[in-house]
Amino acid sequence: MSEYQEPPQVGLSSAAHAKLSRLKDEGHFNEMSDAYRCSVALALAHGAIAGKDTKSNKTTFSVSTLDRDRTLFAITKALRLDEDEAVYRTVERLAEWGVNELSEIADKGEIQFSDLLRNTRQK
């Protein structure tokens, strides 16, 4: 059981927040929350994560809105390696990595979600 108090909100760095907004504005996702969740899933699938500097993160979502059924919490808690922080802090770091990755892909054109799935299955 986590000894850390879970934050009521999660966020991203200002740079990643701008990328998240762009992913929605360009039509890659219908909602920013969908892009955030996908970013977390992508990072988990790749075993990747951003650094621990989340102090300057811009609040993006209320946890109760983003993760109503606590699926992100449960999956992240089960799969994370570093248990030295609150689970939703880990979610923030996963989202940071995933948003940056999705933004790089979007810079090259349309995001092909089937390719994302195929690439993670090959790992």
UniProtKB/TrEMBL annotation:
Protein name, UniProt field: Uncharacterized protein
Species name: uncultured Woeseiaceae bacterium
Higher taxonomy: Bacteria, Pseudomonadati, Pseudomonadota, Gammaproteobacteria, Woeseiales
